[in-house]
Amino acid sequence: MNIQYAAATERLHSGDVLARGVHHLALTTDDMKGTTDFYVNVLGMPLVHAMKVPPGLGTGPKNRGNPPYEEIRHYFFDMGNDSLMAFFEIPKGSEPKANRNAVGGMQHVAISVTHERFDDILSRLEAHGIANSGPIEQLPGMVGVYFLDPNGIRVEFACQPSQDDDQKNIAGVTQTKDQARAELASLPGADEGWVDGLLASLPD
Fold first, then answer.
1. Which residues contact 71 (CB under 8 A, 6 or more apart)?
2. What is the pLDDT of residue 10?
3. Which of 1, 9, 154, 181 is the residue whose CA sits 20 to 30 A from 58?
4. Are 35 and 15 in contact (CB under 8 A)?
């Protein structure tokens, strides 16, 4: 399928950013085999690291934020552009299914791809019988497709078709000061000085 959309407006904010992007996104599953099959064989994300968490890091004082289970599996997949998707395998039946719309939950994860890769993902989903939203225009010049992984995690693949291999995610969503001002001013407790401070890095 070949979808054409208008080009995203080239805008970049002027603020400094301290981070370099996502190192890894750590998610959970109760079926590492099924999850591995899905991310490698359906979505084309190569497995790059397969381990069990060393003893003593699941419970007790040495836990550094891992799930509170000993020696569980922890796998990493290449998400592209030097970013990783990771999964912990939670013992089956030990935790409830997550509500992606709960406060503090992950509503969905959106992964940036080129136009060619977007078409490939659509074909892969169809070939494997994975229910999906089909292409949806999200913002001017940006198209996405939504589907659920085997764990019920909502995944989106998004691209700006006009940009081919040079996807500019920030430029595609950056607003002008005037476009963002009214929404920011509608927040409870937002005064003019607070709004102006947030708008300082946006283009006119």
1. 52, 53, 54, 55, 58
2. 52
3. 154
4. no
**Helix (H) or strand (E) segment spanning residue 172:** helix 169-173
**Per the confidence metrics, is the pTM higher than 0.85?**
yes
Q: Tokens at residue 19, please?
A: 């981070």
Q: Which residue has the tokens 């169809």?
A: 126
Q: What φ, ψ does residue 51 adopt, rounded to 5°? A: -150, 170
Tokens encoding 134: 């089909």
Going by C-alpha positions, the residue among 7, 41, 196 that lies closest to residue 125 is 41
Place of tokens 């190192």: 23
Residue the block writes with tokens 């283009």: 203
The residue with tokens 């693949």 is: 157
- Span 106-173: which CATH code? 3.10.180.10
Query: Can you tell me which residue has the tokens 């997949």?
Result: 77
How far is residue 114 CA from its own chain's centroid? 15
Q: What is the pLDDT of residues 135-152, one digit of tens each?
A: 999 888 899 999 999 999
